[in-house]
Every structure is written in structure tokens, then in C-alpha cells.
Design goal:
The protein has a domain of about 140 residues. About 30% of the residues lie in helices and about 15% in strands. It contains six helices and eight strands. Strands 6-5-4-3-2-1-7-8 form an eight-stranded antiparallel beta sheet. A hairpin with a 3-residue loop joins strand 3 and strand 4. Helix 1 crosses helix 6. The two termini are about 20 Å apart.
Amino acid sequence: MTDYLAAAMAMLGPAQNRYADPTAWDRLQAELGIQLPSDYRFLVDAFAPIQINGHLYLSHPATEWWNLGRDIRSGIKAWSEVPWDDLDLDADEDPRQLFGLAELSFGTRNGLWPIASTDRGETVFLLAATDAEADTPRFLVNFDETWVEHRISFAEWLYRYLIGEDMTGPNSAAFYPGPVQLQHLPMSADERPEPWYGPDRGM
């Protein structure tokens, strides 16, 4: 069986852990009332705040800029304001029908929690009703009017995203050959981080 966390790290390079802080995770999870997957926390600690391959953003709970808790709360507010019951959604556009959800809520015990996003308008949600430490947590990804579900670890989702699979919907691949590009997100108004690249991956 593939160790997807190790496989993802092999493409991203050595962990930097610039802001790794277990107490920041404890505070965030206590505030949210949910547990975030351990491999997700590991990857965020290793690199975030980061932009990966020019599109995918990961925030961190211990930073002032690109703060994960603030981003999650902002996402919850925005998604909760969508009048889902008033929308004329086709069956393949309604996540309630697609994934057997009794209701569509954000930031609730059984709801969706936005934990990552891209500059293409894609949002990755953790479905809190599943055990975040289970072998197969549930992630729902929204891209435009498309929703897809993945019952895999976050590390496997990231690995498959980076090798060019359609992880945010049909024909959604964002594959770039060569090493993965990483870029720290600016931590002040004057900072202009330069991108760098992970190890060669033979692609």
C-alpha cells in the first residue's frame, strides 16, 4: 500500500516547519469543535502558508497573515450565505443529493469545513461528520457548479492532484511537468517571496 504522505513529501521536499506549533492546532481545533486530519496538519506545518504549483493555497493556524482559522471562518460565512434552498439545482449540482447529506451546512458538527482553496475558485471541504483520523475521511471539492467526493486521505488527494489527476472535478487537472513549484505566501505588505522547486520527480 502506498504511503501517500511520504509520496507527497518526496515531491515537495524537506519539511520546513517554519511555524509549526502544536498549541496553535489545539486552540484552533478546540475553537472549531472538530479534529482536522493528522496528515493535513503535518503538511500544513511542513510548508504553510504556501502556494503549491501556482494554484493551491494552504494557510497555517499560527500565523497572522494567511491564518487558517480566519480563512476557515471567512469561508464558512461566505458559503453559509448562499441560499441553497432557493437555487434551482440539478441533481448533479446539489451536494445533498450527490452525497446523501440530510442538510447542507457549513461550520457545524455534521457540516462542511473549507480547509484549502485554489486561485481557480476551487474549495476543498472536510466533511466533519466523518472521523478525521479514520483511514478514509470524506472530502468534498467544489469547482464552479461541480461537486466531487473523495474518500481518501488529504495526503493522497494532494499527491493525486500534483500528478495531474482530476481531483476537483471532470477535466480539472492542473498538471505541470517537472518539479513541483512552491512559493511562500507574503507575511507582510512589503514581502515578495520567490518561488523554488521540489526534487526532480521524473515527470
